[in-house]
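User: I want to check something. If I give you two sequences, will you return the structure for each one separately, not as a complex?

Assistant: Yes, each is folded on its own. Here is the first sequence with its structure:
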Amino acid sequence: MVLYYLGDENVEYMVTNPSDGYPTTVDGVGAFVDPLHRFDAVTVTASKRLADRWSLFASYRWSRLWGNYEGFYRSDNDQANPAITGIFDFPPDDPSYTEIGVPEYGFRGDIRHLAEGGLLPNDRTHQLKLHGSYLLDAGLGLGASLLVSSGRPLTPMAASPVYDRAGEIPEAPRGSGIVTEDGFAGRTPWEWTLDGHADYPLALGRSRLVLQLDVFNLFGHQGVLTYDQNTEVVFGSLNPDFGRRTSYQPPRRVRLAVRYEF
């Protein structure tokens, strides 16, 4: 990356599938590594079909999303460039980035953190889902859904010296956390939402009219979804919003519907 930054005429740009040691690098400095994307999970489910007026479906998943390659979409910097995200544009195991680029040209972070295996941005260690329903004597149907999930890992990200794009180079190992406006956090907060449902049928001869009410985020919980992880807005310019909240869970929403069944 240092040579590319300096506009060295010996730099070549290749479109290929990188792997351990391929393609070769200038003077053998640094090396490409194997892309790694691994998902391990254990899921426990329980279900009861509608009987005796009630039903239930429940699941809990423990999982780990681990590696150095997130996939066609890179969510840590919102880069939707299938197969050509910035992670493997340069040898990620390149010591010259910190040995030359940092002290001489003001590079931030360490490109070698891209090569290290760690928690990927969409890792959700714990996920709980509960869906239940109950049918009253008068024909009124009630339902509720509870969704609970642990937050996303946080990593401080510097801008690319070459692309001048924010969120490219980790300043610390993946998932090591950042200082947010709510204090130090290794992940975004837990996310949860409770949705409610009610429906009531009206007989119309052989057909019927069903009145339906859905309330999403019943309690109006608006937890933090994301923080600004970018230490720079562009290369060489610090980000004054680093660590601030950037998005929240959607507010309460209500949907009224009429369904005709025949």
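And separately, the second sequence with its own structure:
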Amino acid sequence: MSYLYLNTDTLYPMSYYNNYIANYGASEDATIVFSDTVNWSCSYSEQTNNNKSLTTAMMRGIAIALGFGTTAKQNNSGSLFFQQSDPGYSPFEYLVLNDSNVPLSSIPRGRKNRENAALRAYAESNDNIWLKWGGEQYKLYSHSPFEPNRSLIYLNEPSSLMHYEMPMGRCYLDIDDKTANIIKQIGWDIETTPNIDIYCTDIPNTGIASAYDTYLFEISNYNVNMSSLHWEYLVLSESGEFQIKAQQADSQTFSFSPFSYLSTSHINREGDIDGIVRLTYTMNGTNFCITKKLTLECEPEIISLSDQSVRNNGYITLYDYSFNVSYRGAPAITIGVEQEYSAFYDIIHIDEPFLAHVYLSNLSRGNYVWIDISVENDYGSDLQTIEIPNQPPAQVKPEFSAIENSSKAFSSEIKYIDVYTSNGQYVDRIRTLSELRKCPSGEWILKYIGGSQEVIKTRKIHLK
């Protein structure tokens, strides 16, 4: 990054200059380069792992582009100097003092690329080096010998985004109070809410939770000076705008049940509801806003069938059948196939999210065929059936009306299946076909139960 000198005593970072003083006309404020030899972790989890976090590296790079750190540099020949020879100092450098309260801004800048003995003595002394202003004090990282790209740039403050020794894989999703306070002090117009946050003990840091529970949000480190508290639960609509579903005023806690608003909430392609909890309040005459992002998972749903087609496969008495299944809320679908007069019930798993392409081979033309489609996740399941009437021999062109009738026979009323032995003894109640895998091979009776508890149909199957 570069700095600009304006015939004053201050060197302004390019990003600061373009935002608060004037548009310099440069195409960019800074360039952040990521090494392609590093196995970066792009996870949104705050848990550490064995790879460097791309999110953390990006946020640290942005902080430096905003002016975090001094302009002290060391070149390949070992010379230590200030980055620019202009007489001023950066807003960050004006905050730097050592244990003897000697400011860094008292060190002559010297010439660029020439060894600055006074700067080296200051940076490599046994004194601690601090960022100080008012009642604030943060320890700056220094080392002897000087460490390029670390000394006088990063903090020696654990639990800070700008700590000099970042644990491997540590992922920062928010800017900590120490870093935010320093950035604000060097001139950036940001408001922070020290040590105040909103949380729910039943929702993990990922924000992913069930749409069928009730949640209680609270304020961490509640301050008695907080006033005009107003809570809102908002859901992202299909048009991309957030709509308020629940709200509450003048309370330290906020409770709501997403399920109460499920019928009017947009469910995205993944089968989730995108929402946020927002708290606005006033403290010491300043207005603040805190938000928490929520991803609320819903029961899976089979949305529609498309492109149903009977296909000749070269055999007079057999045919193939294909169709697509649009669904959400599950990573895969399960297909069960039963043919009239056949002793077998075939189960197929298709791992195609959102839109599964189903192709069934060698179905008998002279028999009815039933195709069961099911999806499941941790919150429920959905089960629907296609019935295909018998098809004419291959030399006769299949009537498209038969396919249309099969589409009309598609049922969305099946709620569960009761499983019985071949002699009529009740065994279990299942809601998805994949549960049949726990049944041993042999003959079984399936009773399909509809939404009004009526028996839609009964079938005998043979599991291989």
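Because they were folded independently, the notes below concern the second chain alone. Residues 55 and 171 are 6 Å apart (CA to CA). The chain has three domains: 3-185, 197-297, 301-463.
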